[in-house]
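[scheduler] slot 2 assigned
[scheduler] job type: sequence-to-structure, two independent chains
[scheduler] chain ordering preserved from manifest
[runner] begin chain α
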Amino acid sequence: MTEKIGVLGKKSAQRTQRSGVERVVNAPLPTVYGEFRAIGYLDHDRGDEQVALVYGEIGTDDVLTRLHSECLTGDAFGSQHCECGDQLASALRAVVAEGSGIVVYLRGHEGRGIGLLAKLRAMALQAEGLDTVEANLALGLPVDARDYGVAAGMLHDLGVSSVRLMSNNPRKREALVRHGIQVAETVPLLIPPCENNITYLRTKRERLDHHLPHLDAVAHLS
């Protein structure tokens, strides 16, 4: 009898196990860019805590949107190895200038999904001459392990059906469309390169298909 109850209990737990994203909190977030709402979500599939920064009355169609992958070194420390921190700031400024919009900040995306320590190991290999793709592969890791299903789930929850996507990465557009969010327009988010990130950016253009036409004007950088 005890064994039967245990089996039934397991089946009941399986039936009630949640999946997908759940909205948990909506809090005002004043920033140096403007007054946002920080809408927090729990990704039941991966266990990650996520946040969408919403500015103004967003509506449902053609919402100016950025899907920003977590980057501790760029977002918090101002690393010039990448352009992530500048892209985040530019996206926040853009939605404020627009009067409404969303910046979805995606945790678990560090280093294109390989994690912080692995990203730092890859950066060490890049300092020795490998590019960002070669470094990940040398560590036995995928070039890009990010999944955007949670971002689409958050946008669905916010009532968004189509976006104007601030991105240079065609894979983000493809992923949103695959998950039921239409992309009315891709809005370039081009950051002037510097000597420390020009090789990284060229690799993103040449090997990861990012649309970075502004790099043609800075051939003098090493």
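[runner] end chain α
[runner] begin chain β
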Amino acid sequence: MAFDTWLIFVVTVFFVSATPGPNMLLAMSHGIRFGLRGALPTMAGLLLALGLIMGGSAAGLGALLAASEQLFSFVKYAGAAYLVWLGYQAWRAPVSERMGSEDDESAAAVSNWQRFRTGFLVAMSNPKAFVFFAALFPQFMRADAPQMPQLAVLAGTFYVIESSWQVVYAFGGAKLKHWITSPLRQRLMNRFAGGSFMAAGVALSTVSRA
């Protein structure tokens, strides 16, 4: 793979990953709720799912979803429903009179496994991601060169950029936690997060294979 081709890939993924979609929104909201360290299991779930999506796309699952309207629609609507449900939960999340030990105890009640599972399911909820990777990677690969080393470089590059942006969003969320000290601000943040997840779910339900 030529260096200039790799640089174009870096720029492309940098801006794609920076876009505040469901993955980054979840990293930020869990950063607010659990702090940066507490959001690490969430990010691990997001990254594992993205790794499986990249592997599935390379194995032909992306092409299968692109070819099957029924399968694509099933995954799409299931993912949209899950995002809307997450949004509803965030919208209705309780607020406290003061942020402190009670909030820490509430956050501790959500296990690392639950955070990991949420991250995994959110990242897996978008069938468009399978089609995206299946369409994106070949644009930067040479057909006359070994495929696996090229896939490893592209996947590794994607992981570094994506995980870096997730840390940025989670860190930003952790910093916001110190600002959200009143019930009004907590409620506004719950409404913002819930509305954003529900909007993402509605938007996902409208995507097509093309």
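[runner] end chain β
[qc] chain β: Confidence is low (pLDDT under 50) at residues 99-103.
[scheduler] slot 2 released
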